[in-house]
Amino acid sequence: MKKLLALALGLVLVLNVAAWAEVVIAFSQIGQESDWRTANTDDLKSAIENHPGWKLVYDDAQQKQENQIKALRNFITQDVNYILFTGVVSTGWDEVLKEVNEAEIPLLLIDRMPDCADKIEYVAAFGGDFVEEGRRQVAWAGEYLKSIGMGDKDVNVVIMEGTTGASAQTGRTEGNLKALKDYPHLKLVGQQSGNFTRAEGQAVMESWLKSLDKIDVLIAQNDDMALGAIDAIKAAGKVPGKDIIIVGCDSVKAAFDAIVAGEMNCTVECTPLYSRFVVPTIEALEKGEKFSKTVVHPEEGVFDTNGGIDLGTVKSTKAADVISTRQY
Ligand code: GZL
Fold this sequence. Notes:
Blueprint: H1 2-21, E1 23-29, H2 35-49, E2 54-60, H3 65-77, E3 82-85, H4 94-102, E4 107-110, E5 124-126, H5 130-147, E6 155-161, H6 167-180, E7 186-193, H7 198-211, E8 217-220, H8 223-235, E9 245-250, H9 253-260, E10 266-269, H10 275-286, E11 295-296, E12 302-304, E13 317-318, H11 319-322
Parallel strand pairs: 1-2, 1-3, 3-4, 4-5, 5-11, 6-7, 6-8, 8-9, 9-10, 12-13
Antiparallel strand pairs: 10-12
Helix pairs in contact: 3-4, 5-6, 7-8
The site of beta-D-galactofuranose has 14 residues, from α2 and β9.
């Protein structure tokens, strides 16, 4: 009996020590609105759950800010060791992120940065350069048209925006509109949100096909909306990638498939694979290292039908040449 008791006590002790040494990382994720988001979730979940001594606390906010705020407060109550955060929109985070700071839980910002970033404390930040991504989208369309001898022809452009108020939408729109000034023959005839989802992208394109005289170029601020638009274009009896030039963003696998099939023309990369930044950063923070508050932008490419389109900061790569190497 004594031996059994000693064994039980030993087991409790080991479990307590293990729990005590565990690093608990909480992740407030926006939702499951796109292939990009799914890849981002899968990448971070798998890296954290498979890391020795780490435990993941995960929350999917279903694209609702109030759910993210609730999740952040739950993380504080659970006294987790780190919080990973990306905000569905840019505003409305000041109060809750200050509560995270007051709880002295290290905050890592990934993907979409909150507007209050310069008023709160965070230990590291990794996210796309959304303005540059938006610039690249329009510049690709302008340079492509020049490459096929249509640089001096007026063409009608529509911009399908992401979730209204998300930094990925505001940044890409800023980049889109700035770049349009460099290509005066690209005439903006429509600008509407498709909320980063395939279904809403299809619905917006359906309405544009009914209401606009002619669409020559679609700039879709993510690939899911571009793929939804392709569905609508085909249903209307038009040829996507030919009747309407289609430029997406993210560079998810389905976009590569559409480009290789000739139904899409270009996708500007925005990587969702953040574990390669987050894991070494938390490992270093665990050793007491400090990081700057500068947002780290991953190196990203542009992928299209034939490659070779020079956008200044990057030259496009032929999608068919690299499709087999893609990780998401
Ligand atoms: C970009 C990310 C955006 C993607 C969309 O970093 O926030 O959200 O471009 C996703 O596909 O929904």
